[in-house]
Amino acid sequence: MNIWINDELTNINTADELHLSSQKADGTLRNPVTIWMVQVDNDLYVRAVKGTAGLWYRHVTEQHKGRIEAGGVNKDVTFEEVTEEDTNKKIDEAYQSKYKGYGTNIVDSTLTPQARAATLKVMPLK
User: Fold this and answer.
1) Is 98 helix (H, G, I), strand (E, B) or coil?
2) Angstrom distance (rounded) from CA 110 to CA 92
3) Fold observed for domain 8-124
4) Distance between alpha carbon 12 and the CA centroid of its chain, in Å?
5) pTM of the model
6) In what order do the strands lie in the sheet with 65-70?
7) pLDDT tens-digit series, residues 69-81
8) 34-44: per-residue pLDDT in tens?
């Protein structure tokens, strides 16, 4: 089981934005995209507001590996699809709480069925 060490997760979650680079089949990284992320319990989650058809989501789910940078933390990571309803509800609440200052219509884009279907758990590589 891969877990976050020290204050990595806290430092990542204090940032508003996360830079995510998905890994290509040859092991190189794509250019980073900037997205929102949330912490629920001791885990980190991201969502693609364009759903599973979104380009960065499709790239991430090809290899399920990449690199993230936020809050001064640079980390190689893996990604796992999230489908469990109770977890998605907690993630919804975390997005609403963390990003409420951005306005309801913007935050609501992370809560749609399309975005919920493109929810990924981000886990550090060993």
Assistant:
1) helix
2) 8
3) Pnp Oxidase; Chain A (2.30.110)
4) 11
5) 0.95
6) 33-35, 18-22, 65-70, 73-81, 119-124, 43-47, 37-40
7) 999 999 999 999 9
8) 999 999 999 99
